[in-house]
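Homework help board

Subject: predicted structure for assignment chain

Our instructor gave us this sequence and asked us to write out the predicted structure in token form, then describe one feature. I got the tokens but I'm not sure how to describe them. Can anyone check?
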Amino acid sequence: MHSTLRATVLVLSSLSVTSCALFRSHEAATAAYVGDSAITARVTTALIKDPKIQANEIEVETTQSRVTLNGVVDNAEMARRAIEIARATPGVRTIDDKLRVAAAPASSVRPSASGRTSDRS
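My token output:
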């Protein structure tokens, strides 16, 4: 009888430890997700507040405190500023820069009546 009781206590103890570990694991994953969401919100808000940035062109994603900036920006200065803002945001560990600078519009050059080229102005 005692061995059955011991076995039952052992099984219940094991289940308790396992369920606690699973709960802690789930709790940690949830905290990481919430933390990443907060970082994304902070970076996005900071980009929106900066008058030199067109934030609607920049997508921000965060995974394990690693921020990915993705999108097309007007110029290299805007890309540099977006990275600077993300780097200054609390909670950001690393930045994955996937920003692309938009191609400059083709020069509006057309031949003149004399056969020479001239800029449209």
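Reply (TA_rk): Your tokens look well-formed. For the description, you could write something like this. The CA atoms of residues 28 and 113 lie 72 Å apart. That's the kind of observation they're looking for.
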